[in-house]
């Protein structure tokens, strides 16, 4: 159970960077026009706090001390994140409704809707454990 106090901020992670590969230039232009209109509508409603596309390649850092650095993710990966939107909305239902309006969903992209937490869940667990230990 998530006991964190929710904020009204949600992150839409747009996954899929190859949705355009089977489209003609004219079809791509039409979809991009729809996408820009969708984005502009969100801006006019003062819902978008930030939104950016991401380049297709980067680095993946892992391991103790970040000792493993590898190329990736790669554009051909179906789950590569192509961009994000940070929204200020009334709740998850509104964020999901906005995600459903994204014009590239019908072309194979997916959108992950995630609520922004006020504090890290690990820090929250530590605070609960510390509070319980002090009350004994």
Structure report:
- With 136 residues, this protein is α+β, with helices and mostly antiparallel strands.
- The protein has one domain (6-62, 69-134): Dimeric alpha+beta barrel (Alpha-Beta Plaits), CATH 3.30.70.1060.
- Helix content is 32%, strand content 31%.
- The protein has 3 helices and 6 strands; from the N terminus they run βαββββαβα.
- It has helices spanning 25-44, 92-100, 121-134, and strands at 6-15, 48-53, 58-62, 68-72, 81-88, 110-117.
- The strands form 2 sheets. Strands 2-5-1-6 form a 4-stranded antiparallel beta sheet, with helices on one face. Strands 3-4 form a two-stranded antiparallel ribbon.
- The radius of gyration is 19 Å and the shape is flat.
- Residues 1-5 have low confidence and may be disordered.
List the helices and strands and how they pair.
Blueprint: E1 6-15, H1 25-44, E2 48-53, E3 58-62, E4 68-72, E5 81-88, H2 92-100, E6 110-117, H3 121-134
Antiparallel strand pairs: 1-5, 1-6, 2-5, 3-4
């Amino acid at each position: 159970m998530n006991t964190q106090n929710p904020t009204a901020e949600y992150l839409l992670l747009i996954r899929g960077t190859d949705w355009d590969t089977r489209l003609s230039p004219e079809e791509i232009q039409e979809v991009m026009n729809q996408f820009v209109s969708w984005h502009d509508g969100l801006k006019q409603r003062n819902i978008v706090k930030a939104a950016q596309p991401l380049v297709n390649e980067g680095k993946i850092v892992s391991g103790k001390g970040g000792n493993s650095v590898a190329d990736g993710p790669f554009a051909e990966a179906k789950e590569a994140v192509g961009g994000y939107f940070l929204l200020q909305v009334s709740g998850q239902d509104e964020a999901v409704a906005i995600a459903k309006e994204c014009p590239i969903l019908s072309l194979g992209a997916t959108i992950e809707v995630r609520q922004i937490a006020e504090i890290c869940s690990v820090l929250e667990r530590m605070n609960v454990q510390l509070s319980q230990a002090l009350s004994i």
